[in-house]
Amino acid sequence: MRPPPSSLSPSPPPSLRRDTGFRRLWAGQTASQLGEHTTLVVLPLFAVLTLDAGAGQLGVLRAVGQAPILLLSLLAGAWVDRWRARTVMVLTDAARAVALGAAAVAGLLGLLGLPALFVVAFTVGALSVLFDVAYQASLVRMVRRDQLVRGNSALEGSRSAAQIGGPALGGALVSLLSAPVAAAAGALSFAVSFVSLRRIRRPESVPERVAPVPERPEHAAPVRGRIREGLRFVAGNAWLRAACLASAAFQLSFAATMTVYLLFLPRELGLTGATVGLALAASGPGALLGSVLAARLPGRSGHGVVLVSAAVLGNGALLCVPALHGSSTATILALLAVNFVFGTFSQLVNVTVMSVRQAVTPDGMQGRAAATITFVGMGFTPLGSLLGGLLAQEWGLRTGLLVTAAGMMLSPVLMAASPLARLGRVLPAPREPRHTE
């Protein structure tokens, strides 16, 4: 006999693979991430291999591309909480396609010098800030809370796939063809994302418009007030506050490390552009594995244990790179192994932190919480890029790489000393922000 409805166990959440709206979001985000990761390799390689940019110039180029994180993240969070996230994603993808398409044309005409690269890097970086905040908020508005971990795992898995294809494609196109062709490939990826996201037909509610926050003093502009609310919410939440500090320490050191790294591989080890792209792409398969692990390990071992141990293993792997010499097969295999390990455990940290943030944040605060953590965490990347260029110039590539890679170990130390390390298998429920007059 069939048991009465009250005795039935709760039905599992419906499969996201059957959700047409989610599939189109997933496809669009994948194409967009492919374009972004292609561009992140194309512009520095063009500067180093074609324009013979020095360490200081490469540091400035990377800092210019990362400056929008510091300048626009908080505004992006306030805007996304008031707009439809998919509208933001569609518009930013269209604009990035136009910007890179113009760069491709300028390159073919011989006009793509360092000043033009700075403009393109800043424009694409600014639009990427808006897109990244919007797609995180879009997922929360599209799926149920019990589907967030699987949704994040899928989206971060596709980002990992882009990490495989983007650097390899960008490095190969720059090496075999030209930087303009590589830029055109990035523009095409953003155009594909634009088409996919435009086909999402599901209505999207904007939480802050449905349930507006209490009135603010008349002298406070609405955007400034929403930004302050986001800052207060994150600062008042022990888990999110710790995530901000650990992210800031990581991103400062990682930006410095990558600036030296992109010089160390071609100039100290003598690797070609295609080989550099292959080495960077090795983090992609690792990140795919990290996404799979992130859907299972935190629920078995505890979120805190996973965060600290994964950060130690992933960041520690990069300490091996300064010990490498020459461009032999053994060196290339070692680089592939290091990047695979780094990709696996850094992705495990990324997905776990994202799930923690989404779980403890109310729907109407999702955009601002994501933007605040991005602002505090990644706002230090321009400084890190400049610092990496300065260290490489003053201390040499090998010593500079060792120092910057060692700095990345501060992040797991901060997490181990914070409430994040004590998170168990089940994540806490959202906490509503407290409004003050």
Describe this structure in words.
The chain is an all-alpha fold and about 425 residues long. Helix content is about 75%, strand content about 0%. The protein contains 18 helices and no strands. The protein is globular, with a radius of gyration of 22 Å. Mean pLDDT is about 75; it is low at about 1-10 and about 210-220.
Strand content: under 5%
Q: What distance lies between the first and last C-alpha atoms, to the nearest angstrom?
A: 59 Å
Mean pLDDT: 76
Q: Please provide the ordered H/E string of secondary-structure elements.
A: HHHHHHHHHHHHHHHHHH
Q: Tell me the structural class.
A: mainly alpha
Shape: globular
**What's the helix count?**
18
- Computed over alpha carbons, the radius of gyration is 22 Å
Task: Give unreliable regions as ranges.
Answer: 1-12, 210-221
Number of strands: 0
Largest sheet data = none
The proportion of residues forming helix, as a percent range, comes to over 70%
In short:
This protein is an all-alpha fold. Helices cover 75% and strands 0% of the residues.
List the helices and strands and how they pair.
Elements: H1 20-50, H2 55-80, H3 85-108, H4 114-142, H5 148-176, H6 179-198, H7 207-210, H8 222-236, H9 238-268, H10 273-281, H11 283-294, H12 297-301, H13 303-317, H14 329-360, H15 366-378, H16 381-395, H17 397-407, H18 410-416
Helix pairs in contact: 1-2, 1-4, 1-5, 1-6, 2-4, 2-8, 2-9, 2-15, 2-16, 3-4, 3-6, 4-15, 5-6, 5-10, 5-11, 5-14, 8-15, 9-15, 9-16, 9-17, 9-18, 10-14, 11-14, 13-14, 13-18, 16-17
